[in-house]
Amino acid sequence: MPRRRNDLAAFSPKQLELLTWWTGWSPHRGKDAVICHGAVRSGKTFCMGLSFITWAMEGWDGQSFAICGKSRGGAERNLVDPLLPVLQRLGLSCRYQRGRGTLDVTWRGRRNRFWLFGGRDEGAAALIQGVTLAGVLLDEAALLPRSFVEQALARCSVEGSRFWFNCNPEHPGHWLYQEWILRAAEKNALVLHFRMEDNPTLSPAMLERYRRLYTGTFYRRYVLGEWTAAAGAVYPFFSLAEHTVPQPPEGLGDWYISCDYGTVNPCSMGLWGRRGAVWYRVAEYYHDSRRAGVQHTDEEYLAALEELAGGRPVRGVVVDPSAASFLECLRRRGRYRAIPAVNQVADGIRRVGGELRAGRLVICAGCRDAIREFGQYRWAQGKEKDQPVKEHDHAMDDIRYFVSTVACREDPGPGVWATSCPRRAG
Fold first, then answer.
1. N or C: which end of the chain has fewer CB within 10 A?
2. Burial of 179 (0-12, 13-18, 19+ CB in 10 A)
């Protein structure tokens, strides 16, 4: 593959190993797969994409390959968009048809096609059926359904085809860790562990910024690159001194309410206002029917919500998406915009932790049940994936809904967070 004299000097030794593992001079050239895992922002994704395409163009002609991500848009953003200008500078002719999800690459008379697929859920396995592949790159592999990954691997029936996995760590009980990383020798796979220091483009200041961003389990995973189980308190760093204020400041706007709906279980609502880049939980409503000895109807909860709003111009009410009856009650009343919440538990907890540590989420002292639950919220033990104990979690859930759906909706970084919510009117 063509290269400039100083191109390789821009890469770290770990990145160079990834870029060249398949070449004739590499001691790993006989491997059937490469698995890159480790810290966020460690430079593994771009180098894997570059290595994958150069491998394909060096050794194949007229073949099909697959680039798979959690979504097709994610694969475009993480791999295709940053790779295209680099490939073109290296002398490759690239034609990407975004609507079809195909990237046609031509070099020295060879032409190969790269198909983009999204593996959002178990049903996505059907998308990749029927295609014959000479290789597959699985980006964010730990977030893809196992059925989708296994279907993608099964499509690689061309002699000499290889598998490329790229991911950040998850729970150590995850099937990818258990079946591939721990059994790499059986799978004839090369495993490369990346740390942030393996990315030469990160300055010391940026490295320190990422170290401050995470805490506990997520620090071990996303900074140290370890497959580790969540344990103990979900928010062990939460403190009254750092994360609460006696009173909300003046000049708040952009009002929202978040709601974790419950009839037998507690119902928790939080009123949020923003000043600058900081969101304040100004007040809350918390009803535990078991403790109070009385259950409330949807209409009674709606009256409590209106009292919590206190006449403020609330822009939307973010509600547990499973609370269909209460969402419908809100829509029929027509006073507030009902927003089904983004409900990804582990990712949402990580977002809340990041916003708290960054000082962009503050709890006012009057929100006693939220403060109480921050101290009581715990991880469940002995599971194959991260799940908190279903106790003392109702204010925690409504806060998570708000952060994932509103506070972090414009966060662009795959190593930080990205999410979506319904479009705002106007």
1. C
2. middle
Q: What is the pLDDT of residue 421?
A: 38
DSSP characters for 40-108?
TTSSHHHHHHHHHHHHHHHH-SS-EEEEEESSHHHHIIIIIHHHHHHHHHTT-EEEEETTTTEEEEEET
Distance CA 53, CA 301 (A): 56
* pLDDT(313) > 90: yes
The sign of the torsion formed by the CA atoms of 380, 260, 143, 224 equals negative
For residue 11, the one-letter residue type is: F
- Could you report the per-residue pLDDT of 364-382, keeping only the tens digit for each? 999 999 999 998 899 887 6
Asked if residues 69 and 238 have their Cβ atoms less than 8 Å apart, the reply is no
pLDDT single digits (tens) 102-150: 999 999 999 999 999 998 777 767 778 888 999 999 999 999 999 999 9
What's the token pair of residue 144? Answer: 């893809």
Task: Return the number of other C-beta atoms located less than 10 Å from residue 333's C-beta.
Answer: 14
pLDDT score at 411 = 41
How far is it, in rounded angstroms, from Cα 313 to Cα 310?
Answer: 9
What is the chain's Cα-based Rg?
24
pTM of the entire structure? 0.70
- Contact (Cβ atoms closer than 8 angstroms) between residue 194 and residue 39: yes
130 with 117: CB under 8 angstroms? no
d(CA 410, CA 421): 10
Strand-pair partners of 275 = 278
List the structure tokens of 106.
């031509």
SS (H, E, C) 16-39: HHHHHCCCCCCCCCCCCEEEEEEC
Question: What is the spatial distance between Cα 85 and Cα 70, in angstroms, rounded to a whole number?
Answer: 23
